[in-house]
Amino acid sequence: MVSIAVNKSRENVAMLGIGAYRPQRLVSNEEVCEVLDSTPEWIFERTGVRNRRWISGDETLQSIAAAAGERAIVNSGIDRSKIGTLILATSSWLTLTPHGAPKVAHDLGMNGIAAFDLTSGCGGFGYGLGVAADLIRAGSSEYVLLIGAETMTVGLDPTDRGTAMIFGDGAGAVVVGPSADNGISPTVWGSDGKNASAIEQDVDFLEYMQKAQTMQGTDPAVEPIGRMSLRMEGPRVFRWAAVTLPRALSTALEVSGVCKEDIEVFIPHQANARINDLMKKNLGLADDIPVANDIENTGNTSAASIPLAMEEMLVTGKAKGGQTALLLGFGAGLSYAGQVVTLPPAPDEPSF
Ligand code: UT7
């Protein structure tokens, strides 16, 4: 039997640099309520959101992903020629073919590297971080650029009370690579397809095309087909989160070998400020542990929310590079993924 080579593996990996991009246009609750049947007060009280960013002008998912990736590379100090893989965690890239990562790699002057999209809803960054760390541990790449980027507004129905007030656009990225001490724990992840319909597109691509074809040449009075939009049964997701996420957080601590007293920062996905407060309380984290609250002015940016929130905490000094943080992403699938990590250094090139 022939002997097939294996990669040289390594154990210790960490996030070496972070970068983010926040779209120019700030959209207040007041503006959202110009078309949504809601009030600015209700939105803030029930979700924690005051403002969110929406892309405008030349901004696209590709451009904001590349902008965040560029900053992460510069802030990490790693020569981009050493980056072997780009992972684009997103659920809002608009074509299945081609997927986004190769185009973003090209924009970043890294044409030719391994590049793939990872779709796991709002859990996408957590899934991506686990995959990136394991690629490096297995010796498949020395450095990985992980970008979480979303333009949630392209699939947003501005009149839908279940989603319109929450979601925003943005991108965050980290360079992951080898380090002297380990800075990324084993990933705790899972999914619950039984409850997948709690967050879903209202039609799939085939249904949408069939509807569009059926309407071609029909009575002009027939109402034109609307957009394909995201729908969410918020209370159902909330109930799932209340049961599933505390267990995931406890397991993340267990497998990391770190006790809750060692956690210095908590950075959950920015879905709803009330969910985050509940998780902190249930886990018994000390009152003075900072919890990410980027949702207030960035909204829920799905797979981009954790790196955006991490960047905000590092830039404002709420968290410091080298601190031990607990991360947890969760959402569509329904799925979740979390880790205990060492925070990367505060960025020299911040997003605001
Ligand atoms: O990022 C992916 C993961 N996503 C999540 O984790 C989302 C989890 N869920 C949530 O964040 C919340 O469920 C929402 C923010 C989406 C909704 O908040 P809620 O407190 O669960 O609202 P609800 O649907 O239970 O509705 C409570 C009340 C109802 O009125 P009544 O029956 O009590 O009179 C609704 O009709 O609030 C009303 N309502 C609204 N009022 C103003 C529901 N949506 C709205 C709205 N504006 N947009």
What would you say this structure looks like, in words?
The structure is a single chain. By secondary structure, this protein is an alpha/beta fold. It folds into two domains: 13-178, Peroxisomal Thiolase, Chain A, domain 1, CATH 3.40.47; 188-195 and 230-342, 3-Layer(aba) Sandwich (Peroxisomal Thiolase, Chain A, domain 1), CATH 3.40.47.10. Helix content is 31%, strand content 22%. It has helices spanning 29-32, 40-47, 61-76, 101-107, 124-137, 205-215, 234-256, 273-283, 295-298, 305-316; strands at residues 13-21, 25-28, 51-54, 83-89, 114-118, 143-151, 169-178, 188-191, 199-201, 230-232, 265-268, 324-331, 335-342. The strands form four sheets. The chain has a five-stranded mixed beta sheet with strand order 1-7-6-4-5, with helices on both faces. Helix 7 runs parallel beside helix 8 (273-283). The radius of gyration is 20 Å and the shape is globular. The mean pLDDT is 95. Oxa(dethia)-CoA binds at residues 38, 42, 46-47, 122, 161-162, 165, 234-235, 237-238, 241, 271-272, 275, 300, 331.
